[in-house]
Design goal:
Blueprint: H1 6-19, H2 22-33, E1 36-37, H3 38-45, H4 49-61, E2 65-70, E3 73-78, H5 83-91
Antiparallel strand pairs: 1-3, 2-3
């Protein structure tokens, strides 16, 4: 097994950073269940489309979600569901 470098950990940290927002965790957990239209995510989150789209862009740039166009809307899906295992683990910690 190859030893990990600082760059390897930097890549992991950027993914964790993308997840480090309550709205993004809510979006990721919603996408765990099914592919979802941005309009449905807007309703779930309670923010405007622009704000939700910015959160989705952060998640997309981190490689956590992907989008496909369906008519006028984008539908998002979770690419790496195992990252939610990390979030589930953290949910068990007491602050």
């Amino acid at each position: 097994m190859k030893a990990r470098t600082k760059n390897d950990y930097a890549a992991q940290a950027s993914i964790i950073k993308a997840m480090a927002h309550p709205t993004r965790l809510l979006i990721l957990n919603s996408l765990r269940k099914k592919e979802t239209c941005v309009c449905e995510l807007r309703d779930l989150v309670g923010d405007d489309i622009s704000t939700v789209s910015k959160h989705l862009l952060v998640l997309k740039n981190a490689g956590l979600v992907a989008a496909r166009r369906e008519g006028n809307w984008l539908r998002y899906r979770l690419l790496c569901p195992c990252v939610l295992n990390f979030a589930d683990c953290l949910a068990g910690l007491k602050k």
